[in-house]
Amino acid sequence: MTKKKCLWLFGLSGAGKTTLANALADKLSTNKVKILDGDILRKGINNNLGFSNEDRFENVRRTAEIAKLFIEEGYWVVVALITPFEVMRQNNRKILGEDYIEIFIDTPIALCEQRDPKGLYAKVSQRKITNFTGFDSPFEIPQSPNLIVKTVDRTIEECVKEIIVFIFSEKL
Description:
- The chain is built from 7 helices and 5 strands.
- It is of the alpha/beta class.
- It has one domain: Rossmann fold.
- A 5-stranded parallel β-sheet has the order 2-3-1-4-5, sandwiched between helices.
- Helix 1 crosses helix 7 and helix 3 runs parallel beside helix 4.
- The termini are close together.
């Protein structure tokens, strides 16, 4: 049996992280699977955090610690969280060690703006939101993700298949 891991999907808002996380959970459904979605976590356990760099770091750190607990209980954990800074991703590696699989959902900002599932990009252009990742808050391109999934001109199924093939072809 393959050891359970944390599949950490990260990228810009609107990149498709949550959609892919849900589809991955369906594919892994013969196992115990837990999705940790950034939007849901911010409504609950992380509702006391804002969007300063320090609060974003703490949001990611708490999520990694929660993921670790689920992995210890034999779950696959699929995280969908922007995770904009390399220092955050390095900290995830420290917390989760070999159980951390970093998957960059590489979607151009223009496509994210076009998708805009939560209407956030429209609010940014109207200056109703500030400190937004990709605009007035940076997103650092990852230095060494385990996998880069490009979503342009690809279906959800194609992207999920790429991830599944990757995780089961690796010596996990």
